[in-house]
Design goal:
Elements: E1 5-6, E2 22-35, E3 38-44, E4 56-61, E5 73-77, E6 86-92, H1 97-104, E7 110-117, E8 130-135, H2 140-152, E9 158-164, H3 173-182, E10 186-192, E11 205-206, H4 211-218, E12 225-230, H5 232-244, E13 252-256
Parallel strand pairs: 1-13, 8-9, 8-12, 9-10, 10-11, 12-13
Antiparallel strand pairs: 2-3, 2-7, 3-6, 4-5, 4-7
């Protein structure tokens, strides 16, 4: 069997002609808190900028008021859909100079945008059921895919298993819940690993994504394609789980999110 395809967020789309990764200057339009310690940032989309759902961009701050050893640029999956007029990324707000600046810099400040990059994308016209396994902020490429599918999807069944510590830390959960209610082809299984937080009652699924959880929802485990996105330990755990379920590796793609 072939190796699991792992996305390299800062590499050109596999199979794309050389020179397709471009650079633009674009302003920060707005930002908002979308979950605990998590913010969404909206940038003007250059007219020439096209991308596929699941791809990423690299943002570089120009002359930031502070910097540190981690540098002035980061690569983010694009959470907005390809048809939207703004580019939106979302991030956990770690205590770094880059993220402190992005949180506080004046709206209208220009950043350098390089992209699109990455190969964590869906094949055109694929009808096989799709299973998305997301941990934490790894939800972002799936938000782009699901927004696009809601407008122009090929009609395949989609299952999203979305793991977070608490409901308050689950970015985009209200939107995902609404999408699931509006689309009979889309099934959302949101699960919390620490749902006992005071003030955050959780009546839904609890615990880590497991073989039992997948079996109860999917039935046939070997037919779907599996896309996995989240922190490296979560991705590794899901790969181990899928291997024990005997899912062929050629049906698995992954995207690792590092906590920089």
């Amino acid at each position: 069997m072939s190796a699991v395809l792992k996305d390299k967020a800062d590499a050109p789309l596999r199979g794309a002609p050389a020179g397709k990764v471009q650079s633009f200057e674009t302003p920060l339009l707005r930002r908002m808190e979308i979950a605990e310690d998590t913010m969404a940032f909206y940038f003007a989309r250059p007219p020439e900028f096209g991308f596929r759902a699941g791809q990423a961009v690299t943002l570089t701050l120009a002359n930031p008021p502070e910097t540190d050893a981690k540098g002035d640029r980061r690569t983010f999956s694009i959470a907005s859909a390809p048809y939207e007029s703004e580019l939106m990324v979302a991030s956990r707000m770690r205590d770094t100079a880059f993220k402190r600046t992005l949180r506080t810099v004046a709206l209208g400040t220009t950043v350098r945008l390089r992209g699109p990059t990455g190969s964590f994308t869906l094949p055109a016209g694929e009808r096989r059921p799709l299973v998305m396994l997301a941990g934490g902020i790894g939800i972002t490429p799936f938000v782009s895919m699901l927004r696009e599918d809601a407008v122009d999807g090929p009609g395949r069944p989609i299952y999203l298993f979305y793991s977070n510590r608490t409901p308050g830390s689950a970015a985009f959960l209200p939107e995902l819940t609404w999408l699931a209610s509006a689309n009979s082809r889309f099934r959302l299984v949101a699960t919390m690993t620490d749902p006992q937080t005071p003030g955050e009652p959780w009546p839904g699924t609890r615990g880590l994504i497991s073989a039992e959880m997948l079996t109860a929802t999917l039935g046939d485990l070997l037919e779907p394609a599996y896309y996995v996105a989240g922190p490296p330990p979560m991705v590794a755990a899901m790969l181990d789980l899928l291997a024990r379920m005997r899912v062929p590796t050629e049906r698995i793609r992954t995207d690792e999110f590092f906590g920089y």
